[in-house]
Write a structure and sequence with these properties.
UDP N-Acetylglucosamine Acyltransferase, domain 1; 2 domains; nine-stranded parallel beta sheet; acyltransferase; EC 2.3.1.129; cytoplasm; alpha/beta
Length: 256
């Protein structure tokens, strides 16, 4: 059902069983897949694709140009996955031209009210972003991560899989997967044990991750020494992913 007051550009593609509320604006080259619901006054500005069964709440603003002074109006894109919920007054911007020209949100993400996701961000699946949090440009977030309210994330930071960030934290360096991080400046407080249990991560794997984290937090070791020692411990897929994250960090990793 499309409300009579909605404005839809002639180049936009609208799927089956889509609900578009009053005063919605859908701009050029947007693709709205089957079963999407778009609430009152929402703006889907341009070059935005929204996959099946995602819900866009009233007054959300998606697909606006990047807040990047080098941007010159190029046809960059925003893609939002299946079964997401984007709550009211959220803003998610299209990409700049500095990476692959696309900002991307995975499937089953819950983006709460008045939060912001900037240009060139890459969100995995099943991520929760809580109200009033700001994610700067080029940030990558792994599957099942939870970012609590009023968190500020610096550009180019990576947040690992199943990490949880406490409210009002300032994140300026990479957050390792499976960890619990909080503070200003943020520090690691341990493993995200609750999240690991909810994802049915085996006790022996949790024990291995605990050992790996203890090595990394040992300040008597340099980063290289810590990585070498962790490689001797890591056997599970999760452990190997944990060590690989440290090896590939460019901004540095939060440490207690």
């Amino acid at each position: 059902m499309i409300h009579k007051t909605a404005i839809i550009d002639k180049t936009a593609e609208i799927g089956q069983n889509v609900e578009i509320g009053p005063n919605v604006y859908i701009g050029k080259n947007c693709i709205i897949h089957d079963g999407v619901k778009i609430g009152v006054g929402a703006v889907i500005e341009e070059n935005t694709e929204i996959l099946e069964n995602t819900v866009i709440s009233p007054n959300a603003h998606l697909g606006g140009p990047p807040q990047d002074i080098s941007y010159r109006g190029e046809d960059t894109k925003l893609k939002i996955g299946k079964n997401c919920v984007i709550r009211e007054f959220t803003t998610i911007h299209r990409a700049s031209t500095k990476e692959d020209w696309i900002t991307e949100i995975g499937d089953n993400c819950y983006i709460m009210a008045s939060s912001h996701i900037a240009h060139d961000c890459k969100f995995g699946n099943n991520i929760i972003l809580t109200s009033y949090s700001g994610i700067a440009g080029h940030v990558h977030v792994g599957d099942f991560a939870v970012i609590s309210g009023l968190v500020a994330v610096h550009q180019f930071v990576r947040i690992g899989k199943l990490a949880m960030i406490g409210g009002m934290s300032r994140i300026t360096q990479d957050v390792p997967p499976f960890t619990l991080v909080e503070g200003n400046p943020a520090v690691i407080h341990g493993l995200n044990v609750v999240g690991l249990r909810r994802r049915n991560i085996l006790p022996e794997v949790r024990s291995e991750l605990k050992k790996l984290l203890k090595v990394y937090l040992d300040k008597s070791l340099t980063k290289e020494e810590a990585i070498n020692e962790m490689k001797l411990i890591a056997n599970s897929n999760e452990g190997i992913e944990f060590v690989s994250f440290f090896e590939s960090s460019k901004r540095g990793i939060i440490r207690r």
